[in-house]
Amino acid sequence: MFTIVHRIATTEPAEKVLDALTTIDGLADWWTTDVSGSASAGGISAFRFGENGGFDIAVTSVAPDHVGWHVVDGPAEWIGTDIDWRITRDGDYNVVLFEHRGWREQAEFMYHCSTKWAVFLQSLKALVETGTGAPAPRDVQISNWH
Amino acid sequence: MFTIVHRIATTEPAEKVLDALTTIDGLADWWTTDVSGSASAGGISAFRFGENGGFDIAVTSVAPDHVGWHVVDGPAEWIGTDIDWRITRDGDYNVVLFEHRGWREQAEFMYHCSTKWAVFLQSLKALVETGTGAPAPRDVQISNWH
């Protein structure tokens, strides 16, 4: 199994990060504007990216320092994978440690998703710091795969 | 061992990507302005990031579709690791497949470097597409670790 990992940090309150991860309005402001369902523990959120399809994600855990997701539908490579968000403290900073675990192959699509996650984490950081993220469809394009 | 992977693509010529990876002037325009040494096969390049230190990297391979680096000095986590740049073609796009291999631990510093590599790959893409990248010290900051 292979894992995508990322780290960002902000001096903004951890509650703002948690809000962006656990509410539909928050998720719409940094990942994709086309999101519906429930982002609370036990809920399922449906994220869509126009012609590029999307993901259905079950929220397995919500705590002040952790949000856990399990992918239940989407591209074959994503189904059954887990996404973890841990929020830790480092001095004046709230740190977000991101893991997307359970990739069965280090396929080219995983390379793309790793870079794209970094783009969306920058969008999340911008959202909590400035009030404006860059969710799809106005996300930063990195390649022919968007 | 753990690996950081990324993927970007551009419609600009592969030669521009190769030039940005294999010349000191090119590297200075997207990774760090403080780079010296030789970026050709068999050479060693010294990359510095002000008070954050830097890396000495041996160039192990240069070909039209591949550049190989081996880290010979820098943070303990980086020493002995390998960085591979593969350039492939997908329709109208030249694709850059990036691997940073040989991480002995999935430590928090690896999470940071994964996100930071994505930031610098965006800088590389901007350089070949617009003529202007965002190398250190004017790189995009992602956290308290820069």
From TrEMBL, chains A, B:
<comment type="similarity">
    <text>Belongs to the AHA1 family.</text>
</comment>
<dbReference type="Pfam" id="PF08327">
    <property type="entry name" value="AHSA1"/>
</dbReference>
<protein>
    <submittedName>
        <fullName>SRPBCC domain-containing protein</fullName>
    </submittedName>
</protein>
<dbReference type="InterPro" id="IPR013538">
    <property type="entry name" value="ASHA1/2-like_C"/>
</dbReference>
<feature type="domain" description="Activator of Hsp90 ATPase homologue 1/2-like C-terminal">
    <location>
        <begin position="13"/>
        <end position="129"/>
    </location>
</feature>
<dbReference type="InterPro" id="IPR023393">
    <property type="entry name" value="START-like_dom_sf"/>
</dbReference>
